[in-house]
Amino acid sequence: MGRGRQKAKHTKLARELKSFSPTVDYAALQRELTHHDENQYVDRWGDAQDSEGEDDESARV
């Protein structure tokens, strides 16, 4: 593909993205951001990182 056609495609895509405005559920976003109950938060990656850290330390010794 020539540079002119490639640039035209990129320009077209950039215009589409510039005018793109998705619908946002602001009420759901506010609930998510203002939710302060720490008992419901679950760190799913915390256990995986702890076990990796233990393996790394034992390998160094």
Describe the structure.
With 61 residues, the protein is an all-alpha fold. It has a domain at 1-33. Helix content is 67%, strand content 0%. The protein is built from three helices and no strands. The protein has helices spanning 3-19, 26-34, 46-60. The longest helix has 17 residues, at 3-19. The mean pLDDT is 77.
Search tags:
elongated; 61 residues; mainly alpha
Number of helices: 3
State the separation between the terminal residues, measured CA to CA: 56 Å
Alpha carbon gyration radius: 24 Å
User: What is the overall shape?
Assistant: elongated
Largest sheet: none
Q: Portion of residues in helices? A: 55-70%
The structural class is: mainly alpha
Low-pLDDT windows of residues? none
User: How much strand content do the residues show?
Assistant: under 5%
> Tally of extended strands?
0
H-E order: HHH
Please describe the topology of this protein.
Layout: H1 3-19, H2 26-34, H3 46-60
Short description:
The protein has 61 residues and is mainly α. The protein has 3 helices and no strands.
